[in-house]
Amino acid sequence: MKHLFLFLSSFSFAQTYQVINSDKTDVSYRGLAFENATSFVVSGSKNTIGKSTDGGKTFSWINPKVVENRDFRDIEVIGKNNYLALGIDSPAYILETKDGGKSWNKVYENAEKGMFLDAIYVDSKSKKITVVGDPMEIDKPFILTSTTTATTKWDVAKALFGQPLRLKNPKEAFFASSGSNLYVDDKQALIVTGGELSNLYYYTPKGGQMYALEKTKSSTSGINGLAYDATNNVGYLVGGDFTKPNDSKYNLYKFKITNGKLVFQDSWSYPTGYKSGVTIISKDKVMVCGYSGVDYSVDGGHNWKNITTDSYNTCTVSPDKKYVILVGNKGKIGKVTL
After folding, report:
1. Which residue from 259, 301, 305, 333 puts its CA 20 to 30 A from 115's CA?
2. According to the lineage, what is the superkingdom (predicted)?
C-alpha cells in the first residue's frame, strides 16, 4: 500500500488528498457507495468487492462465490450490512448480501445475448430500486425496477411514472463508467445517454421530456454520469470523450428543475478533460473525476481547482460531507478530506 499526501490551498481553504489503497493493481474499480459516515463499499473487476469501516484506513476484500469473473461496475447500500452488486454483461447478475458481504445470493440473472447492465440507483425515501441497461429493443432503454423490501422480484419497465420509455437514436446507449447515469426519487427520474447522440431524459407523472446535449461527433463521447441534489435543486452532468482524456469539450452541464422543466445554467469555466463521475457536496460545492484527474469547485461550477491529475472513475462524498472517496483503475482508491 502506498500513501501520497498533498496539501492544497483552494479558494481560501485547504483539502488533503491521499491515495489510501493500491493493493490490487489488476482491478478496475467503478462502484462505490456509503453505508454511513465511516463505512463504504467499492466494487470492480475480477469479482472484487471491498469494504472499509474506518473511513478508508483499512479494507477487507470479498470475492462472492456464487458467480465467477464478474465485473461489478456498480454497488449500492440498501440497509445495514445489506448491499446490491451489479455484474454487468451476459450473463448479467444482481447479487445481494445481508451480512456485510460474508454471503451473497443471486437476486437477478439474465443471459440474453447483448445484455449489459450499466448502473443501479436506490432511493432510500421511496424504497425504489432502478437499474438501467443498454437497449434490448432499438428505441428503448432496458430498465429494471424493484424495491428494497422485495429484492428478488424484478420487473422490466415499459414506462417510468407512466411515461413510455424512449430513445431518440437507436445507437444511443449508456456508459457504465461510474454507475451514475440515472437518478430516481419519488417524484421524477433522470436518465442520460451517450454514443451517437447524448440526451437527458426526464420523466414525471405529468409527462416525459428529452433534452439534447451537445457532444463531439465521436461515438465514444457524450455524458457519462449525473448527480442531482433535490434538497438544493442543483444537478450536474459530466462526460466528454474517454478516448481523448485531455479534451474538455462538452464535459459539463449544470441544471436545476423549475416548474417541472430542466433549466440549464452557464458556467464561466470548465473542469479539465474527460470526466466520468460527479458528487455534489453542498449547494455550491461539487467535485468531478475522470481519466484527466479530479477537480473541485466551491462556487457552483463557475471556477475549478485541480486537486490531482491522478485518474479516477467514480467519486462520492461521505454522508457527513467531511471527505470524498474516489475509485479508479489499477486498484487505486483515493480520499480527499474537505
Report:
1. 333
2. Bacteria
Cell numbers 443501479: residue: 120
Q: Please tell me the predicted confidence (pLDDT) of residue 173.
A: 86
What is the secondary structure of 140-204 as a DSSP string? EEEEEEEETT-TT--EE-SEETTEEP--SSTTEE---SSS-SEEE-SS-EEEE-EES-EEEEEEE
157-186 pLDDT tens trace: 999 999 999 999 888 889 889 999 999 999
Q: Which CATH superfamily is domain 5-337 in?
A: YVTN repeat-like/Quinoprotein amine dehydrogenase (2.130.10.10)
Residue with cell 443471459: 111
Q: Using one digit for the tens of pLDDT, what is the confidence trace for 25-50?
A: 999 999 999 999 999 999 999 999 99
Using the Cα atoms of residue 22, residue 176, residue 146 and residue 200 in order, give the sign of their dihedral: positive
- Cell numbers 414506462 correspond to 159
Domain boundaries, the chain: 5-337
The verdict on pTM exceeding 0.90 is yes
- Residue pointed to by grid coordinates 438544493: 232
Q: CA angle at residue 334 from 332 to 338, to 5 degrees?
A: 170
